[in-house]
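3.2 Worked example (two chains)
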Amino acid sequence: MGSVVTRERLGTTVGSLARRGFGDTARAGRLMAEAGLHPERHADIIAALGATADPDLALLGLTRLLERAPDPEEVRAELCADPDLRARLAGVLGASAALTDHLVRHPEDWRELRGADAARMPEAAEARAGLLHIVGADPTEAAPVADPGVAPDGPAHALRVAYRRRVLRLAGRDLTGAQRLDEVAAELADLAAAMLEASLAVARAEHPGDAALCRLAVIGMGKCGGRELNYVSDVDVVFVAEPADDGVDEQAALRAGARLAAAMMRVPGSTDGEGTLWQVDAALRPEGKNGPLVRPLSGHVAYYQRWAKTWEFQALLKTRPIAGDAELGAAYLDAIAPMVWHAAGRPNFVDDVQAMRRRVEAQLPPGEAERQLKLGPGGLRDIEFCVQLLQLVHGRTDPALRSGGTLAALEELSRGGYVGRQDAAGLADAYRFLRRVEHLLQLFRLRRTHLLPDPGTPAGQEELRRLGRALGFTANPVTDLTTAWRRVAGDVRRLHEKLFYRPLLNAVARLPEDEVRLSAEQARARLEALGFVDPAGALRHLEALTSGVSRRAAIQRTLLPVMLGWFSDAPDPDAGLLGFRQVSDALGTTPWYLRLLRDDVRVAERMAWLLGTSRYATDLLLRAPEAVAILTDDAGLARREAAGLAAEADAALRRHDSAENAVAAVRALRRRELLRTAAADLLDITGVEGVGEAITAISAVTIEAALRCATSRVAAQRGEEPCTRLCVVGMGRFGGRELTYASDADVMFVHEPLPGADPAAATETANAIVRELRRLLELPAADPPLRVDADLRPEGRSGPMVRTLDSYAAYYRRWSAAWESQALLRAAPMAGDPGLGERFTELIDPIRYPADGVDEAAVREIRRLKARMEAERLPRGADPALHTKLGRGGLSDVEWVVQLLQLRHAHAVPELRTTSTLPALDAAVAADLLDPEDGAILELAWRLASRVRGAVMLVRGRPGDSIPSDLRDRSAVAGALGYRTEEEGEGAPELLIQDYRRVARRARTVMERVFYDS
């Protein structure tokens, strides 16, 4: 009966062990028996072991400890009674084979994991004093000296044992989650500093003569300097030595300091029964391993002033005195820190830091990059380089960023608005995860490693399982850990590339030191030098944008010193800054706006140019500030296809019940597209043809939407569907798809009664629809007006607004004049019934493309009209040489030449049958109707005149056909067109005038020869 009970109990135990995570349950059962653990009496201990990273390792470690312990029963009793001790000891045994070995060598040290001392983080001074006491040194002395007889095996060995003991205590807190990652890293750094202080005391005891000759300061660098050390890491240091007093020769003092430093470095780096703690690395000193181990303070300063490379200043960012002469260490820090925080002003600073990160990554051994926690893509270095670059660039003016710790710096970067809150939180979480994995990796053997285990090997799988369980992935430790690592690495890489290569960093770094922060008087002088006409007003705008402690003000303080230079590049810096303030006031509380400006410097730069160049674009942007988002990239400024615009307009019509609201929504769409077009124009992303196409397309969509609303409104008022079809025919620049920012939409209205409809009723209905269409388009609104002009209809203003297709046919058959044939060259259906538009086109083609061309009488009439137009329609006082539309060599000259060629030859040359000027000009050249050189001259003149005319509207915000006579406006137009004042020579306005006169003169010569056959 007893044997049956034993077998049942054993089965129960084995099953329970498996559920708790033990891999080899049979072995675990034997070890439990050897350790004197009873499944019932010691259930809490077994449960604690099962909750560790590696239950089998923890059980084996406890068994070994109990074998060596003087009183095993005391250990078991304490473990049963003290849950904190139980959790700490089990956690250490299950995660660290090296610390388990320490406990086996020193079985009494399990007591380090119990009580109040095991639960609290010691102060740095406490760690220093504790290790100095171990070597028999007095911590109150300025230069403590060890007692060689303090321990049987010598002070160095005792020091290594004490260091391991303190790491054991820290690991107990760390592995039970009682201490945050940053606290763990800071305690490790403080412990390393204390170890170096005590090691220096040992070195002084070994070399008393040298200690009397020099003062030696140990400067922490890297993770130790930044108080974010790993469990096992090289401790980077720099040594500063000075003579102990005026009577000591400097060279003798430096030699003594070098011997002391070397002796100090041997203590933690030597190997004995405790193994090696870590190496002290002085390779970051000036000139690296080729330079002297110690230097005087003046030597350090001279080197960094004259010879240091960019990466050396980056390394100095985490500098702090950690051991040795405190006064000398503080003097070193005072001398070096200003150079560190001014390093970002060095030429190519940002590029150098970015190149260094790429070199580090390129040097990784093949096959390791995907497992490298530290150096690989998405690893710790991505985060650290990113944070350090941001600190160095922005820390010149913001002392809050001058922190040696990565997490603390990230928090300040976020608080100051240099990094978005979400991005900073993402990097901080990733940093904690990666450092946690790194710590667990190193804890196992207390060896320096940053490489995740290879999942392709059994040993790698076992290690990954232990890591995964330690991180809380208990269901599928290997899979879950691998998935989490890949996700974190991907997130880090994305944020690294977003922040590390942010163009704003280069822009801020390039600012001269004296321009980053200016006094009021300095700012006024700087604004005047930058070309601000009203520096006092500009100062008021700057103060309004940057005053206060809000996140918005902090981001603006970073942006505006850079943007002032961009404003100064624009024709009107004052208007640019005012516009920026107005847009910022409208959008300042919108989270995405400031994030967009900070994270994508192109938007801020483009805004500065647009606002400082174009009143037209500024007005559009102020009416809808959220449209600033289209400046993000060139794709956002690309001309949209008509089909996409029509679909969006259709959706707007469906969203609104009233015709007024529906058309207002479509007009808002037109306003946005006008801003897109103006921005693309001013930023040289599109040319004059693209501008004409874009404005024509959105105008046609707007008229089509208004026509649909008008038709529905008339139908609703009359209680029946309209009894006629209606088509809007574009004329002039509208029909030629060459509308400008200031153009009216020249149109003709044609309708066709439905079968059986009363003609009079149909015409009355068509007129009602057209009246409603024009009313809807002309409703007062904040949008630029779209005027519909029907003056080119038969009989002009005296003729009916709307005609039937048959009426047009009758009119053109009996009364059509030469000018009307010419006008019809630009006619194209733009809205309404497409079938009717096709029939209208078939009607007018024989009229505008006559089979026998035009007779000489018609040609003479056209020439008389051209001469009369120049004489009568040119505004009084206008300079004919500078009027882009009607002046000599202007748009009219080119277009009338092309249209005469079309009237004469389009019937025989189908390629001439186009409503647009440049395609017709190309067709005339291709058909040998125009000399290629003449064609090139006319094309250049048309393009330049179109660009100037558009620039006048963009700059002034109101139409104008002449190059402005006002010098300020003329300068602004020249700047908008890309003209720049030469360093020695003509100014931009003069260069524009010279170019325009030359091009127009040549075009006029061609026009007179071709148009007048002279």
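3.2.1 Second chain
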Amino acid sequence: MSTTHAPLADHRIVDLSAGIAGSYATKILADGGAEVLTIETPQGDPLRTWSASGAPIEPGSDSALFHHLAASKKSIVVDPDTQTDLDLLHGLLATATAVVWSRESAFANILSPQEISDAHPHLIVTAITPFGLHGPWSDRAATEFTLQAWSGGIVGLGRGNPDRPPVHVGGRVGEWFAGAYAAAATLISARRPGRARGEIIDLSILETQIQGLTYHPVTFLELRERPFRSERSVFVPGVAEAADGMVAVGCATAQQWFDLCVLVGHPEWVDTENPLAITQRAAEAAPEIYRWIGERTVEEVSEKATAFRIPNAPVGNGANVAGFAHYEERGSFVKNPGRGFSQPGHPYRMSAFDLPRPEAAPRLGQHTESYRSEVGSGGTPTSTAAPGAADDNSATALPFAGIRVLDMTAFWAGPSATHVLATLGAEVIHVESTTRPDGTRMIAGVPMSDDQWWEKSPIFSGLNTGKKSITINIQTEQGQKLLHELVATCDVLVENYTPRVLDQVGLDYDSVKALRDDIIMVRMPGFGLDGPWRDKAAFAYVIEDAAGLTWLTGHPDQNPIEPYSIGDPNAGVHALNGLLIALEHRARTGEGTLVEASMIDAALNVAAEQVIEYSANGNLLSREGNRGPVAAPQNLYQTADIDEFGRDDSWVAIAVETDSQWKALVGALGSPDWAADPDLASASGRRRAHDTLDQHLADWCRTRSGDEIVDALWTVDVPVGKVMQPHRQADLPQLQARDFFAQVDHPINPTASHSTLPVRFSAGPDRIALRPAPLLGEHNTEILTTLGLSDTEIAQLEQDKIIGRSLTF
């Protein structure tokens, strides 16, 4: 039976950030047991007075979101204008493992990341900024909305109706995702072998959005000489109205579409000779499909679709999601310890121990005097060396050097987690079979008649650089024996199959633990290892539907639109955090553990604001098109440009968050008479006049190019961004300056640009070099030899089709 354990208890984290990203990063660390010191000015963290719905906050109380994000943290008030308070801050930094910093913080102008690092060279300094600390755009104004535009994430994977403006992904999801990445980057740095000094971690939210909202579009363009998707469309069925609510049904494969045709009573729609016409056929059949769904309840549609293994889910929102039976049975939501409202539980679960339960968020300055006493008495310096550190010669080793990982993942979620491990030094062995390869190999964009077409997938290449490949037919007794032998040599096993798959081949956690007692097994099922939805098919969009991420995306007068992206990479970065916490536990105790990191629990955590706002204040957040809860005006405005496809479909994103930005915008527009209305001087007045502002800004933008608009507004610090096609990311000078894309050679494909990581580590590597993704079964001999097999035995395995290097459908 597991007991409560705090794997990060040896780490003190100083939080000098502002906003959701930094606060969520330190929440993840606090939930792992770290001591997190939130440094606030006498006015308090702005999140204390924040409500996305505008719900009033009584004097002396704090917002529900603050209570959620600040749970288990300590509050220390530091007046930036008082030297004794600054001395206190430096005293705390002297005893910390890491500091999380963002440029929006009230302390950013007092202490830059470099100044902190110079004064406290032992510290890990995790800096979260819109574009990164260096490069031509490093000081440019930005919001999450404008960053989504620059990243290509607003266009995404062709999301939205081409007859309407494109729509951003709602819910400020980019800030939550960046926070999860910042937490992982901090823990990665903390485990560097022989770490005697700290480093600066430079995280770019633009780059995290590229990783989270787009699907290796530059690699696809360069390898296939065409975009992955060049126009927007609404996926059918997608989100539909059932008799008693919204339900989402999706077809990611030809077989799922064929099954849907049978399900709705139209087997004649099946065209096995031309499966590529599915999108067109689905659009033609949409009225009949929607009629079929509309005649049934959400539960009836879900049950029937699940029986056919067609991905589906009810569409969650702040009002209904906590009541879904699956979440109730699994205990996915817990009560906030300070206010009692519902909030998501931990995004991962450990078998060897329970993570600490969150404690109530602190009152402003609650812990100031106790820490002032500690610093005054000299304090206790925090250890800066990783557990089990060898010697100074290992200090430059990559963080995951010496770790062997068995990668039994496929598609996007699992491979995105193991990709980070491979990029930063782990030996990652990607397991496939010649009859069941990784599904992204099928996204090749070339005819199956091409020689070795399965080696030509840009998506597989983007997600699997630096890994090794072994093929094992695990449906055979001999294949299972080989797999078990391989497991025994690995430190970590990561898998994202449906739960029944590994159970059927004898690789449940107890069996894996019997093969290697200290192994860490990370399981990434869509909906968890138990509960009514345990075996439900899970793709990114279904996870987005079931968590509420879909609910906040789209135009308010239409059904919501699935982001069709964030569900997978978000699961990957949360699984990575779970693994890093488990590695800390093993480093201190020698004990392995099962990490259950379901996709849905990760999604519920980044969609937390909806259920928190409804549970605490009774307010249902809903989609607002391209408006948002912070900036006004905020929207997309059409420009005079004709896009690269010859369409009148070019847009810019503008977001005004502050009164000073509004004054700058008015000046850039030439101070027109309509902008002189005194009500517009306040955010509330601008929000009331949003429709009128949109019309004036639309008229001004429509006669100008995107470059003219950006030049006019960015030079006066108004957040603005061109809505980029995702495959044009490599054209951005900021990404070029940061070497975000690496050139990767390949034995079959041409050299092409591949995205690296959205963080730069000052301790190295200075520039991330990527090895090509492996050919199918490329490392069979190398890996099987380490298990003691001879060349003759390996040849026999290939002859018996246990292993191989070509697809054998």
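3.3 Remarks
The first strand starts at residue 3 and ends at 4.
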